[in-house]
Amino acid sequence: MERVTLEAKTREGLGKNQVRRLRHDGRIPGIVYGRGREPLPVAVDAKALGAVLHTQAGRNVLIDLAIGNGDRRAETVMVKELQRDIFRRDITHVDFYAIDLTRPLEASVPITFIGQAAGIADGGVFEVHLREVVVKCLPTQIPDHIEMNINALGVGDAIHVRDLVLPAEATVVTPPEEVVATVVVPKVVEEVTTAAAPAEAGAPAAAGAPEATAEAKPAEAKPAAVKSAASPEKAEKAKPEASGAKAKSEAGPKAKPDAGAKAKPETGSKA
Hints:
disordered C terminus; 4-stranded mixed sheet; 3 helices; 6-stranded mixed barrel; CATH 2.40.240.10; alpha+beta; RNA Polymerase Alpha Subunit, Chain A, domain 2
């Protein structure tokens, strides 16, 4: 783990005007806290802080912060948080966390990928899901980065956190089942393949449609023929029924005079 020295001065003013004045003079406001101490407002040189953060260790660099306004004392700290300008991305504030070199702590370590995935030659795309993992170890044993060889990674293969190789003195805090990187089929190819499948399936159906129509037409003609053939039979059945009805109506009136005729002779015989 890399270790550097950075000078800082305590600051009195905490208002916006004081902060603007510090930035105008090329210094960055910050604060030191941790290990049960009271927060201490400080200011550091902007260029010096930038050089510290661009070392190989990055934000995990150990800083011997020399704080002094006449009195000079050094304290080992790490960068806990950075605030940046939303447009220019310049650092506007820094938080320093005082650490104990004899106690383990958690730190984010970047992942470095070595080589080129074999699946890229087969049309795959290499996708990164995690660029850093959280590890726990002593401050002096924090690795600068974690290397991962991806040459054997084919299409559909994935690297998980459990596949990473760490130094023996460090343990992983990030869940082991999380995916670090994978090689996937391009989305454009997947969409073209999916669209082609329904088109091929629909072609036979479209070709078979005229045959189904041609077969259906004779089936529709048969009931019509049956209906036309059945209509004369119904007509013939209807004629006898109609003639029978006429016969009944004629028989009805004839029966009445017969009854009357029988009644007259009976009355005459009595007389």
